[in-house]
Amino acid sequence: MIFVKNSDQIKQMKLAGRITGEALALGGEMVREGISTYEIDEKIRRYIEKCGARPSFLHYGGFPASACISINDEVIHGIPSRRRILHEGDIVKIDVGAFIGGFHGDSANTFPVGKVSEEALRLIEVTKESFERGVAAAAVEGARLGDVGAAIDGHVRSFGYSTVKKYVGHGVGHDLHEEPNVPNYGTPGRGIRLCRGMVIAIEPMVNVGTASVLEQPDGWTVLTADGSLSAHYEHTVALTEDGPLLLTKI
Ligand code: MG
Ligand code: MG
């Protein structure tokens, strides 16, 4: 069932969204050569808790950390570790959620470590642009989920990149993952019709090479099947009478 939020609930969700966005920005500011993903995760956890919120991902389905931090060909769900050190030229995806006042926020971004390749920079840019295309499609009166996915995937494919199909965006609310699924691909005019009060995480995951992904033996980390680079960009988006509102954008 899709839980549609009223304007008071969306107002409450702004707090979870803001803390999520701030925690993500803080994590992004720490990205530099030589730092471990554990240190970034700890900073994010402490900030969320200092705000009186709870890290949404900690213990979610048994996940052992507050943020998912994924490097290079790791697509999503990377586990922070003292042994995972960032190196110049890496790209690192940080995915964060915060829960407060009964609601979650969910947001992700991809950060370059020092000087990275032209390809990596383009991938990061195209991934963010594809998110923006998705939001623009969602803003159209009467839009359907297929319009959002087609807008994202069309932009990604125009650069020769691939959209991950196995993992998708989702509704956000009292639960971190609610209905509906929000695929980053689709057919225009198909899928459920979007309506005011829906709150969805739009989150393209984009690979330089094939769309295929593999799950690591740790049970969490998802890798590109061909070892190519992957980028991720996500905001929690409320569909309001004034159009889409990015709750996690600070
Ligand atoms: Mg996320
Ligand atoms: Mg999400």
Describe this structure in words.
This protein is of the alpha+beta class and 250 residues long. It has helices at residues 7-30, 37-50, 118-138, 145-158; strands at 54-55, 67-71, 74-76, 91-100, 103-112, 162-163, 169-171, 178-182, 199-202, 205-207, 213-215, 222-224, 230-232, 235-240, 243-246. The strands form 4 sheets. Strands 8-7-9-14-15 form a 5-stranded antiparallel β-sheet, sandwiched between helices. Strands 1, 2, 4 and 5 form a 4-stranded antiparallel β-sheet that branches. Strands 3-12-11 form a 3-stranded antiparallel β-sheet, with no helix packed on it. α1 runs antiparallel to α2 and α3 (118-138) packs antiparallel against α4. It starts with 6 loop residues before the first helix and ends with a strand.
Describe the structure using short key phrases:
29% helix, 250 residues, 15 strands, binds magnesium ion, single chain
